[in-house]
Every structure is written in structure tokens, then in C-alpha cells.
Write a structure and sequence with these properties.
The chain is mainly β. The relative contact order is 0.08.
Length: about 1100
């Protein structure tokens, strides 16, 4: 009986342990219960009629959490800040068990509204102190500094140190900005501002910022700090939600990224190295998040350049997106841009560091490609290697205590008068829905996978501040989260991969070596981390670095670059160990100038010419147009116009801008030449152009495609033009040489398709103006020129039955089947890749080469070369890319329906997408009802519309009777010709960062195989869709064994930023250059070395 009782007791204890710890070691993380950890902090809010959302709208921003070993027992302790509850400090006792020492340590604070916190050894005594930010509706807002007494107690001494900042504090960060060896302080403040403040208010306040409104920089002067905000050039007005440090341009000086809420612009402050900073955010990014929340800076792709993530409020879920999320409208968007506040969009941005030119880095947002753009109401992002595989993953804290953007609720209460004694009632009626935090595993290819559920991190919360630390010293990182009205959470990490922990012992004035970089190289990876404490939102990490090693068994080298520039390297380090490095063992580095020695490309200044787009609002006629079709130019063409054996170039003009002719001189300079027709023909919109000797007289004539969306359809302004060369570079307009085709065109290509000895033309029609997605007519023009002059006619439909082939964007002539007749391949928006086989001058569609539906995309350019040198012609085709709001996956297509849904004699556009397996309208209730007002009657509120499927909104019969296109892929691809079929494969991931508008082929590395250069972007998207601006061009080197390899910008030198619509190669003084033509921007010259 005693044995049985003992057995039952043991089983009971085991069950109790399991239930208390919520153990599930099959997941990456296990949520530990309060009973196990002893951590019982709850950031409880106590709202009443005088203090609630309506009196203090910032009430749900929550608290932070910081970690560090405050008593030097080699165990990380935890400090939580409370808004309306005391702060709490928990001492780590080992085995993930903690003791609450708040009261005895004197760290609970008073009745202030505490927000962010960070641990730092501010007085260099070897013990971590705690700096705490303060905000709140009123009362004392001075930040606090708890000085560690070395006996588990603290003394508040912010005023004595001169750092009791008076702003509405959010967070602070410590760094050595002036590189004098000690740690200075940057304080981030969020001045209370009405949520509906106009952009003019921000603009005024940025020029007239008061002391309690600005962020502040405090210089460490030894025993105290001096405020040097103005001297450093940092006085500014911004709704700052995080300030994060990192050496973004690799010059060894720490820079600052300031993430600002609402329309107030972010700041990327580059450290000038002389005690001052300069904001370059508009020069170094193409856009930022709108509701900029937390930021983390880290090298997530292991290229030794710091990247960063900024989170926003954009729901992944269709229902929450349409019911609870704010929406961008054109007035708000363009006023933000026009006030100089940069392009800002409502989604997370993951900014990939592409290169550093001089002292300026450049970043491309790749959040859509990476799969992390939409994580709901997000606060704190953390980039860290949570599974210890050698690649940094991503955790995002998430949630808002009440849905303060719920459209239905706030529309309803606008109609009700609210007395002061009813504010609590109305506050509690605001909808509330806890949501899960997000975890993303790094796929090692610039993309991430959502592993929130797989990793055991899908508990639904109202989370704000979060951090990570190795709380149990087992070599992996636990996650600690501060929640509103819920207990804080500690997630134990169950990683089984190898690791190395690096601890730095710096100088006497920077004992932990803050701002230093550590590089770890194994047989399979090369990583870099920079030691910065403040990360994410209102939180900070411990002062050491943890490197995951995966299954690697040996660390080949470990190098630290100290904050003073000294270097120390260790070789053959043992895995699963802690490595301590001391700055006294470091030395000055050796000079290294090899980084820029092997670049293939260099941008140079040759001709200053700007394409100037005319003002036109496409959305007046087409409310739900996905992008402006009036901003698709210019085209560009190169060739010897005047017969002097020097290549000239021609750039198309927008409406009211003349076509530009540039003639090359013998010294490599250019002169701009005008013609008699130049001014009169500026009324046209030039889309594309081609130089060919159409009359076989030995000089190049010019054909220009007319297009645009601002004109009436089927009118003469859409007619193309042909200009005859007189042999010496003068052109005359020949109106009767081409048919009276009034179609809004896009691209022209030439070939002698009928083998009669002259060049014929295919002109691809783009779109019927004002009626997207109706395709404009396309034409095959046969050259019948004779001694009387140039003459083209339309090939009859029996010979070429493809007048309505689609919204054509590009075409290429190539003999893909090696039968001696040049075939035509046509691509476009919403089209498949269409192979038109030339059978002795007659064309028929060949659908035997590839699964047609699988090729439906938004294609923008196509070229043909025998890349693999196997005797047949292969293809490279540029698509929209995988970094856009529009996505496809398997059978989940992206669709468009066009019909007169409301029977008002006007066509309506309906875009649809899939979310969790269901097809929904892409646009929300407001936008959709702007096009079809009856939608507001059918769906009385946003909540009803948020769960309505596509068929619920538009009805199955109407959809079935619509013009319907769909896409299956947005990837740019390589089609390898296998003789009787094509094998389609995606181009490398760097090719997918934006739309590919132009592809050039050239053997750049002179290995005998043709390489390609691609460029693009699409700046003309509607404002709810972040513009496609992630491309800076890519050089793709072809290797016969491995195919195309994308050479990163920092290695190739290729940098083609902007809205590139066309590019060509031109020879100047026996050197080849690329000319890039950009919409509403300067042309650019790039030297090919």
C-alpha cells in the first residue's frame, strides 16, 4: 500500500509539473505558467469616466520589458514597466524561476505612467542600471533612472545625472554617438497630438518645436549628461514610437532610425562623425510605413550589412482588415507626400540594405516578398535567431486592448452626444478582440514562413513590449512579453541546435562594449551582429550576443570590431560555449580597399534630360483602377541617326512634352536637336519607338507608338507616327505612310516576317482609354514600301487573327521552333505567354509548348537568346514580381471582373483575391461603394461587408457574364527551350523585388554566355496599394551549370533606382553604357566597365 501511495504521489507531482508548465517540447517554444516562473506581472488598466480612451487616446500603448543581469550572478533578470500598476523587477533564481524583488529594490516607481525601459551600466561600476521613460495624460512626466547600488537595491537619480527628460516619453537608447568612449543617451518622445491633425500642423510644429515635444540627445560628460539636441541637429517634432541604433552605412559611427506615427515622417539620422546628424530617409528609402511603430535593426540575410524592420497596422485577415483597420485615402496620402513627409504606406516594411554609396546606405522594402507585411496591430518586432539555425527569425508583438479603428462603432457614436459621465460606458463598448503574436522563420532566401502556431506562439493577447534573452543559459533565446490586462508571458525556447554566446568586456567607460560588431564564420555560414540594447518597442535586450550555428561543429573564426575601431580575431572556437573577449587584447585593423575593386557598373553624368509627366487623374473616370495607365512612358531608342557611325538616342515625351533627339558628337557629348514637327507633336503621348531602315535607303527611320489613358478612345491623337530620315539625320513626318489605327499602343517590334526583304512591325495595343481592362487593338503591319516612299498596311485578320490579343506590354520575334520562319511571342497584363507560330507568313497560336493557364501573369517585357547554347532560342520574361500587394498561390488566383454591375451604362472594375481559401473583393466598403453606391445599401455597415465574399457582393450571374481575367503567377521567369516545349523556372529572388519593365542581354563578364540586366518598378499604383519600388536593377550572370545567378548591388555596382520604364545600350567613345528612361524623372547613364 505504501508503494502504491508513493507511486500515485510521484504520478501526481509529474502531472502537476506538466500542467503548471504547459510543456510541449514538440514545439519551438513552451509557454510557462506563473506557477512555474513566479512572474506574475499584469499591466492592468483601470479605466473610469475621467481616464479612458476618450480622455487619453494613447491609453492602449502598453508597457515595456527589459532584461539583464542586475546582480552579476550570470542569470538575466526581468524588469516590466506598468502604466497604471507598479513596475516590477524579477530576480532570476535559475531554472526559469524568478523572485519578485520590486519593493525591496525600490524600482516600483510612483503614480507615473511608465512606458519604455532599458538596462545600461550608466556609471561604469559593473552593475546594470535601469532607465525608464514616462508619459501620461498629465502629472509628472520626468523620466527616471534607477542606479544599481550593487546589493539588489536601486536609487532613483535621473535629475542628478541630468537625464530626467520632460517629454511624453516612449523609450530611450544608449550609444556612443561621438566615439569618445562613453555612452550617450537618446530619448524618444511622443508629443500628444490629435489623431486627426492635418499635415499643415505637423509641418508647422516641425519648424516650431517646443522643448517638451522634441526627442533629445544627451551627451555623457562623465558624472552627468548635457542635452545637445540642438547642437546635433536633432530638434524635431515627430510622433516617435521607437528610436533604434545601428551603423547603417558601415562607417563605424552609430546612426539612429526614428519611427514616427501617423503622417509625421520617419527620420534616418546619419552620424556625420562630428557630433551632428543628417536626416536622409527620403534619399535612402523609396517609402516607409505610415503608422510607424517599433523598429529593429539587424543583418537578417547574413551579408554583413544592417537591415531593419518597421511595423505598422495592416491586418492579414480579410475581416479585420475591412472592419478594424484604418484605410488610406488619396487626400491623406498626397498631402503627406506634398508636405515633404515621404511616401508612406500602411504596412510593415522590411528594409533590405542594398549598398552604401559614399556615406549613404540605400534600402529596398521587401516585406511583401518576405511574407511579413501584414501582422495586424503590431508593436514590437524582434530580429533574432530563435531556432539557432544561423539565420535571424522574426517575432512581432501584436494587439490593441480595444479596436479604436473599428469603423462601425465610431461611425455610430459620432451621432451620439457623449457626456463626461458616460465616457467609461462608451469606452467599454469599443469592440475588443485579442489576437496572436506572430513568429516567422527565416527561409534563408529573403523570405520568411509564418510559424506562429508551429512554434507554440499563437496565444491570443493584447501584447505591447517584448524582448528576448537566454534566461536559462542553455544557448537559446526565450521570449518575454508584456501584455495589457493579462499576465506577462515567458516562452521557453526548446532549440536543440548549436550556438556560441559572445560576451564583451569593453573599456572602463563602456564596460559591455556597446556598438561593437561581432562576426562569426563556420563552414556553412557567416554572420554579423551589432551589440545594441534597445530593440523593438519600449524594450531592451541583455548586453551579450547569441549566435545560432545549426548543426555546424566548428567555428572557423570569431572577430569583434570594437566601438573604437580596434579588431580582435579568434580561430577554431568550441561550439556550445561562451566566449569572452576583452578590448585590451584588440589592435588597430589593417587597411582593406578591395570591396569596390571588381564592380561591373558605375552611374555617370552625361546628359541631363527629364521626362515630365502631365497632370491627369485616372481615378476620376475609373474609381477602382489598380494603377494609372497614363503614366507608362517614356520609351527610349538608340542608333546612328545621322550616319556618322556614332550612336544617338531619342527619348519619348509625355503629353505636352516634345520627343527629345540627342545627337552624339565626336567627344562623347550630346546636342539636343529639334525638328519642325517637334512642338506640334508634343500633343501626343510617346510610349515606344524604334529605329529601322524601313525604305532600305541606308539610313534609320523612326516609328513612334502613341498611347496614354487621358485621351478619348478611337481618336486621331492615338495614331502612331512615322518619320522618314533624309540620310543626314533630319526627319520629316509622313502622315500617310501608316494606317489610320486609333489605338492606345504600348510597344513596337520589327522583323521581316514574310521574308520579302523589308522590316515589318508588330504594334501592341495596351488599353482602351478610360475602360480598363478592355484591351486596345494590336496590329501586324506589313511593309509595302517602294520607290514612292514608305508604306505600311494592316495585315488582314485571316493572316493574323490576333487584333484583340490582350493588354499587350511587350513582344519578341524569334524562331523558337527552328523552322526558318521567325515567330512572334506576345505578353501583357492579365495574359498568358502567347506563342504565335509563323507558317510561311501566316500566324496561328501554338498552345502545345507550355501549360497556358500557368503562364497567366502581369508580364512587362520579354527577350529571346540562346542562353544555354544548345541551338534553340530561350526566353526571359519580366513580370509584376513577388513584392507587391497582389499575390497568387497555387489555385488561388488574382482576378479582375469587368461589367456594368449597377446598370448605369458604365463599366465597373472588380478586383478579387483569396484569403484563407475564400475569394473576396480586394477593395473595402468605402472604395467599392464609390464605384457602385448600391453596395452601401446592400451592406449597411463595415462589419457586414468584411465577411462578404465576392459572390455575396456582386452575385454569381453578374460575375459569370463579366469580362474576366486572372493571374496564376507574378514571378519573372526563364523559359528554357527543350526543342518541342519550354520549361519555366523562376528567376532568382533578387529579380522578384518589383516589376521588371525592361530586360537587356549582354555578355557582361565576357565568358561567352549572354547575361541579362533587368530594371523596373511601378510607381503608378493606387494609394491603398504600396507602390512597386523595390528594384534597383539586377545583373543576372548566366552560368551554364547553374543557370542565372543574381549579383547583389554591392558586388555589381548596378543601381537603377526609380520608375524605370525603358532602357537601351549605347556606345559612347567605344565604351558601352546603359541609358535608363524613368517616368517623370531624369534619364540615367550607367557605364559598363
Amino acid at each position: 500500500m505504501k508503494r502504491l501511495n508513493l507511486l500515485l504521489f510521484i504520478i501526481g507531482v509529474f502531472i502537476l509539473h506538466i500542467s503548471c508548465s504547459n510543456t510541449n517540447d514538440n514545439t519551438q517554444f513552451t509557454l510557462l505558467s506563473t506557477n512555474v516562473t513566479g512572474v506574475d506581472f499584469n499591466n492592468q488598466l483601470n479605466e473610469d469616466n475621467s481616464f479612458n480612451y476618450f480622455t487619453y487616446p494613447y491609453i492602449y500603448m502598453g508597457g515595456g520589458v527589459s532584461v539583464g543581469d542586475i546582480n552579476n550572478d550570470n542569470l538575466d533578470d526581468i524588469f516590466f514597466t506598468g502604466n497604471m500598476t507598479p513596475n516590477k523587477l524579477f530576480l532570476n533564481k535559475g531554472n526559469l524561476n524568478f523572485e519578485d524583488i520590486t519593493s525591496s529594490s525600490n524600482t516600483e516607481g510612483d503614480n507615473r505612467w511608465y512606458t519604455g525601459s532599458t538596462m545600461v551600466d550608466i556609471n561604469n561600476d559593473g552593475y546594470l542600471d535601469i532607465y525608464v521613460s514616462v508619459a501620461g495624460l498629465d502629472g509628472i512626466k520626468n523620466n527616471e533612472l534607477y542606479i544599481n547600488n550593487g546589493d539588489d537595491t536601486f536609487t532613483e537619480m535621473a535629475k542628478e545625472y541630468g537625464v530626467d527628460d520632460i517629454g511624453n516619453g516612449v523609450q530611450a537608447t544608449f550609444f556612443d554617438y561621438d566615439k569618445d568612449g562613453d555612452l550617450d543617451l537618446y530619448v524618444a518622445n511622443y508629443p500628444m497630438t490629435s489623431f486627426d491633425a492635418p499635415r499643415s500642423y505637423y509641418s508647422y510644429k516641425m519648424q516650431n518645436t517646443e522643448d517638451h515635444e522634441t526627442d533629445n540627445l544627451y551627451r555623457n560628460d562623465g558624472s552627468s549628461f548635457t542635452k545637445v539636441t540642438d547642437e546635433a541637429g536633432l530638434r524635431t517634432y515627430g510622433l516617435t514610437l521607437s528610436a533604434t541604433i545601428g551603423d547603417l552605412n558601415n562607417d563605424s559611427y552609430p546612426d539612429i532610425y526614428i519611427s514616427n506615427d501617423f503622417s509625421s515622417p520617419d527620420f534616418m539620422y546619419m552620424n556625420n562623425g562630428d557630433g551632428t546628424f543628417k536626416d536622409i530617409v527620403k534619399e535612402s528609402t523609396n517609402h516607409t510605413s505610415f503608422y510607424g511603430m517599433g523598429v529593429d535593426i539587424a543583418d537578417f540575410n547574413n551579408d554583413h550589412y544592417l537591415d531593419y524592420i518597421q511595423v505598422d497596422m495592416d491586418a492579414k485577415d480579410n475581416r479585420r482588415s475591412k472592419a478594424n483597420m484604418a484605410s488610406m485615402n488619396p487626400e491623406l496620402f498626397w498631402s503627406t507626400v506634398n508636405y515633404g513627409f515621404h511616401y508612406q504606406y500602411m504596412h510593415n516594411t522590411l528594409q533590405l540594405n542594398r549598398r552604401v554609396e559614399g556615406d549613404k546606405p540605400f534600402f529596398s522594402n521587401i516585406s511583401r516578398l518576405s511574407g511579413i507585411s501584414s501582422t495586424d496591430w503590431s508593436w514590437g518586432p524582434l530580429l533574432a535567431d530563435f531556432d539557432n539555425d544561423g539565420w535571424k527569425d522574426l517575432f512581432i508583438s501584436n494587439g490593441t486592448r480595444r479596436e479604436v479603428n473599428n469603423k462601425d462603432y465610431f461611425n455610430e457614436i459620432k451621432l451620439r452626444p457623449m457626456s463626461k459621465d458616460s465616457l467609461l460606458y462608451y469606452t467599454k463598448q469599443i469592440p475588443s478582440e485579442p489576437i496572436a503574436n506572430f513568429a516567422f522563420r527565416n527561409n534563408k532566401n529573403l523570405t520568411f514562413s509564418d510559424v506562429s502556431t508551429d512554434w507554440g506562439l499563437d496565444d491570443k493577447n493584447f501584447s505591447n513590449g517584448a524582448t528576448y534573452a537566454d534566461l536559462d543559459n542553455d544557448g537559446d533565446l526565450e521570449i518575454i512579453v508584456n501584455n495589457i490586462d493579462q499576465e506577462a508571458q515567458i516562452y521557453r525556447n526548446n532549440s536543440i541546435n548549436n550556438y556560441v554566446r559572445v560576451e564583451l568586456k569593453g573599456s572602463e567607460e563602456n564596460v559591455f562594449g556597446i556598438d561593437s560588431r561581432v562576426y562569426v564564420e563556420t563552414e556553412n555560414s557567416s554572420q554579423m551582429q551589432e551589440l545594441t540594447m534597445t530593440r523593438g518597442f519600449q524594450s531592451s535586450v541583455a548586453p551579450y550576443l547569441n549566435f545560432g550555428l545549426g548543426k555546424d561543429q566548428l567555428i572557423k573564426s570569431l572577430k569583434v570590431v570594437w566601438s573604437n575601431g580596434n579588431v580582435q580575431t579568434l580561430d577554431n572556437i568550441k561550439i556550445n560555449s561562451t566566449v569572452e573577449l576583452n578590448i585590451i587584447n584588440s589592435s588597430l585593423p589593417k587597411e582593406d580597399d578591395s570591396e569596390l575593386s571588381n564592380l561591373y557598373f558605375e552611374n555617370v553624368d552625361i546628359v541631363e534630360h527629364k521626362h515630365e509627366e502631365n497632370e491627369y487623374d485616372d481615378y476620376i473616370k475609373e474609381v477602382l483602377l489598380p494603377h494609372e495607365n497614363s503614366r507608362l512612358g517614356p520609351g527610349i531608342v538608340t542608333g546612328d541617326i545621322n550616319g556618322d557611325s556614332l550612336e544617338d538616342f531619342i527619348v519619348g515625351g509625355a503629353k505636352d512634352q516634345s520627343t527629345a533627339f540627342y545627337i552624339q558628337k565626336s567627344d562623347g557629348s550630346f546636342t539636343n536637336k529639334n525638328f519642325a514637327f517637334s512642338k506640334a507633336h508634343s500633343k501626343y503621348e510617346d510610349m515606344d519607338m524604334i529605329l529601322e531602315d524601313f525604305d532600305n535607303d541606308g539610313d534609320k527611320d523612326l516609328y513612334i507608338v502613341s498611347g496614354g489613358n487621358e485621351f478619348d478612345p478611337n481618336t486621331p491623337i492615338l495614331k502612331d507616327r512615322l518619320y522618314v530620315n533624309n540620310g543626314s539625320g533630319s526627319f520629316s513626318y509622313n502622315e500617310n505612310s501608316i494606317p489610320q489605327n486609333y489605338s492606345s499602343g504600348m510597344r513596337v517590334t520589327s522583323n521581316d516576317f514574310d521574308k520579302d526583304g523589308d522590316m515589318d512591325l508588330f504594334v501592341g495595343g495596351r488599353v482602351v482609354p478610360g475602360s480598363y481592362p478592355l484591351p486596345a487593338d494590336s496590329y501586324l503591319l506589313e511593309n509595302l514600301s517602294d520607290s514612292n516612299g514608305i508604306k505600311f498596311i494592316n495585315v488582314n485578320e485571316s493572316q493574323f487573327p490576333f487584333k484583340d490579343i490582350g493588354l499587350v506590354t511587350s513582344s519578341v520575334w524569334t524562331d523558337y521552333n527552328n523552322d526558318g520562319w521567325t515567330d512572334l511571342i506576345v505578353v501583357g497584363e492579365w495574359t498568358p505567354i502567347r506563342f504565335l507560330k509563323n507558317i510561311e507568313g501566316n500566324f496561328t497560336e501554338d498552345t502545345s509548348l507550355i501549360d497556358v493557364d500557368s503562364t497567366r501573369g502581369w508580364w512587362y517585357d520579354i527577350i529571346s537568346e540562346d542562353f544555354d547554347k544548345d541551338g534553340d532560342m530561350d526566353l526571359v520574361i519580366g513580370n509584376l514580381g513577388n513584392n507587391y500587394k497582389y499575390q497568387t498561390s497555387g489555385d488561388e488566383t488574382f482576378d479582375i471582373f469587368y461589367n456594368d454591375f449597377d446598370k448605369n451604362n458604365s463599366g465597373d472594375i472588380v478586383l478579387s483575391y483569396y484569403n484563407d481559401g475564400e475569394q473576396y473583393p480586394l477593395r473595402g466598403r468605402q472604395c467599392s461603394s464609390d464605384q457602385i453606391p448600391a453596395i452601401k445599401t446592400k451592406f449597411q455597415d463595415y462589419d457586414a461587408f468584411s465577411i462578404a465574399t465576392l459572390e455575396d457582393v456582386y452575385s454569381e450571374p453578374d460575375l459569370e457574364n463579366s469580362l474576366h481575367y486572372f493571374t496564376k503567377t507574378f514571378s519573372s521567369v526563364y523559359l528554357e527551350n527543350n526543342g518541342n516545349s519550354f520549361k519555366m523556372s523562376k528567376l532568382p529572388v533578387l529579380s522578384q523585388l518589383s516589376s521588371v519593365n525592361k530586360i537587356l542581354s549582354k555578355d557582361i563578364d565576357k565568358d561567352g554566355y549572354m547575361d541579362i540586366i533587368i530594371s523596373g518598378n511601378m510607381y503608378n499604383s493606387e494609394v491603398e496599394t504600396p507602390r512597386n519600388d523595390g528594384s534597383v536593377g539586377v545583373y543576372l550572370n548566366y552560368n551554364p551549370d547553374t543557370g542565372f545567378e543574381a549579383i547583389p548591388t554591392k558586388e555589381s555596382g548596378l543601381f537603377l533606382n526609380g520608375d524605370v520604364k525603358d532602357m537601351e545600350i549605347i556606345n559612347i567613345n567605344k565604351i558601352d553604357y546603359i541609358i535608363s528612361a524613368k517616368n517623370d524623372d531624369l534619364i540615367e547613364f550607367t557605364k559598363i566597365k
